[in-house]
Design brief:
The complex is a heterodimer of chains A (172) and B (174). In chain A, helix 4 runs antiparallel to helix 5 (139-156). Helix content of chain A is 30%, strand content 40%. In chain A, a hairpin with a 2-residue loop joins strand 2 (30-39) and strand 3 (42-50). In chain A, the strands form two sheets. Chain A has a four-stranded antiparallel β-sheet. A four-stranded antiparallel β-sheet of chain A has the order 6-7-5-8, with helices on one face. Chain A starts with a strand and ends in an 8-residue tail after the last strand. By secondary structure, chain A is of the alpha+beta class. Chain A is globular and about 50 Å long. The mean pLDDT of chain A is 92. Chain B has a single domain (19-169), classed as Peptide deformylase (Peptide Deformylase). Helices cover 17% and strands 30% of the residues of chain B. In chain B, strands 1, 2, 3, 4, 5 and 6 form a six-stranded antiparallel β-sheet that branches. The longest helix of chain B is centred in the first third of the chain and has 15 residues, at 33-47. Classes of the chains: A alpha+beta (172), B alpha+beta (174).
């Protein structure tokens, strides 16, 4: 079965998840990893699914596209969850909003070999907040990027920290 | 409280970003008039702020290691020492982490999931006293004390969230 990446973005309303997940199910598909969230009133979903036929799924979702939702369906390679960067860190940043915070921070991480695997940003009335999970080859690589990140934080006038996350998670 | 405090004044609570909230606060003289007035002001400001269970001095613009707390009315509270102010608090021990969603008057638009120890022993001075007290607590009071001590170190709960999806929008502070 082909693996597809589906994105749906548009003005929020009840039923979007039900309709997209329903179309995948009707297509004999299996919805795997997904991220679905509300971003300033726009519902945004990205999902990976195995389906019988990518073109047929796109047809089933066509009515959503007609209702002012943006829909894409593309075939992608299968599962590849193995990471060569086992040291996972959490970057927390907050400060006054200004253009370029994410780009400068991400550039510093990329130049140090870090790979951003999960990131959210939030804009409040006065405060911009970015939290990102970043994978490095080892702890030394993460420590090596801290200087560049602190420099970025100073230039942007924001507070920033990078702390190690337990890759296995905590058990209770 | 070991000595009577002067009348407290309700002060403006600063919001992030603000340099006072990013500063590591200085040690305070627990017997100084300034600290007694600060303690009274923190309690007065906390008392009129709906849902506020604690306030650090730098949240009202004073960069001294002083905070107020009162979690007695909160449903997550187990042990409560009532309404009090601590000066120059030092964590003696902190164990048994759990994760709870926190908010902050200085970060009114967001909440966040933070993992912190739920058993806590803190050493500190009471306002007007030169003798240190040791306070042993748990659950919500332990969490609130650590949140306030973070403020005194220039940290917000946003610096402690557990992951990339652990900050949530909130329209109003309650």
């Amino acid at each position: 079965m082909p693996t597809v990446a589906v994105t749906v973005v548009g003005a929020d309303r009840p039923g979007i998840v039900a309709e997209v997940a329903g179309a995948v199910a009707e297509q004999g598909g299996n919805l795997e990893d997904s991220s679905m969230t509300l971003l300033r009133g726009h519902f945004a979903m990205t999902l990976i699914a195995e389906v019988d036929d990518a073109a047929q799924l796109e047809e089933r979702l066509a009515h959503l596209a007609a209702e002012d939702l943006s829909v894409t369906v593309i075939e992608v390679p299968g599962d590849d969850t193995a990471s060569s960067r086992p040291a996972r860190y959490l970057l927390s940043l907050h400060g006054a909003d200004r253009p370029g915070i994410v780009s400068a921070t991400a550039r510093a991480i990329a130049s140090g070999g870090g790979n951003i695997v999960d990131v959210t940003t939030r804009l409040g009335s006065q405060l911009y907040v970015m939290t990102a999970e970043v994978e490095f080859t080892d702890d030394a690589a993460a420590e090596a990027v801290i200087g560049a990140l602190e420099q970025v934080a100073q230039q942007l006038g924001v507070q920033l920290s990078l702390v190690a996350l337990d890759p296995a998670g905590e058990e209770f | 409280m070991s000595v009577p405090l002067p009348a407290g004044r309700v002060r403006e609570v600063l919001r992030a970003p603000n340099p006072a909230l990013a500063s590591r606060c200085d040690e305070a003289d627990p017997t100084s008039k300034e600290v007694l007035q600060l303690a009274a002001d923190l309690l007065a400001t906390q008392a009129v702020s709906p849902g506020c269970v604690g306030l650090a001095a730098n949240q009202i613009g004073v960069t001294l290691r002083v905070f107020s707390l009162d979690v007695s009315a909160h449903p997550r509270t187990r042990t409560s020492h009532g309404s009090f102010v601590l000066v120059n608090p030092v964590v003696e021990s902190a164990t048994r982490k759990d994760k709870v969603r926190e908010g902050c008057m200085s970060v009114p638009d967001f909440t966040g999931d933070v993992r912190r120890p739920s058993r806590l022993v803190v050493r500190a001075f009471l306002p007007g006293s030169t003798e240190q007290v040791t306070l042993q607590t748990d659950a919500f009071e332990a969490r609130a004390i650590q949140h306030e001590i973070d403020h005194l170190d220039g940290l917000l709960f946003l610096d402690r969230v557990v992951g990339a999806h652990a900050v949530f929008p909130r329209r109003h502070y309650l």
